[in-house]
Design brief:
The chain has about 200 residues and is mostly beta strands. About 10% of the residues lie in helices and about 65% in strands. The chain contains one helix and nine strands. About 20% of the residues are buried.
């Protein structure tokens, strides 16, 4: 009974705060969607900050600024395009984004909200790196992937406030723009993150 009272009191305190902000950090499960896509899904990380403005007891708006990595696993293959066909090449793909989600939150209870909103993604790094060994020397070449500089998506998830300060979020964001011109590939991203409110 005492625990229930503490949770209700914590929820009431959170509901009275109009403006909060703080850091958040989490992991992403990134993948690509589209026809004939050879997807290599991978776990990555994100780190950033958020603010939340409570419009009333039920509705809030919460923009974020997040740095997100998008690195695919290393792929080993025999490449006959610009190297000796007998040489094994290891390729690593990496894209980094600054993402700005703007989430509209509906509080189904003082501790739990359903979150929905757009995400604006700005590419800050876009490379794939080939590594191979040739005549006893390690060789390396970097190339641009040629992906779009801007990525627009839609996110849906939930936030659970454990206390007045700490919360956990789950979210799935689907890109509505393709990765590059002439492709049907799009980003898909499942996130699990934790945050701290000031």
């Amino acid at each position: 009974m005492a625990l229930v009272c503490m949770v209700l009191a914590s929820g009431a305190a959170m509901a009275q705060k109009t403006f909060t902000f703080g850091p958040k950090i989490g992991i992403d499960y990134t993948h690509q969607l589209g026809k004939n896509i050879n997807d290599e899904s991978a776990l990555n990380y994100q780190v950033g900050a958020f603010m939340e403005y409570r419009l009333n007891n039920k509705f809030a708006i919460a923009p974020e600024v997040v740095f997100a990595t998008n690195t695919r696993p290393k792929m080993e293959w025999v490449d006959g395009f610009y190297h000796d066909p007998a040489i094994d090449v290891t390729t690593t793909y990496q894209r980094n984004y600054i993402n700005i989600p703007v989430m509209f939150k509906y509080y189904v209870s003082p501790s739990l909200s359903i979150d929905l909103g757009p995400q604006f993604g700005f590419k800050v790094y876009d490379r794939y790196t080939d590594k191979w060994e040739e005549r006893g020397r390690e060789m390396k070449e970097k190339h641009s992937l040629g992906y779009r500089n801007f990525d627009f998506g839609l996110g849906l998830g939930a936030t659970y406030n454990f206390t007045e300060r700490f919360f956990v979020q789950v979210r799935y964001t689907l890109s509505l723009t393709t990765l590059y011109e002439g492709s049907n590939a799009r980003n898909g991203n499942a996130q699990l993150s934790i945050g701290y409110r000031f």
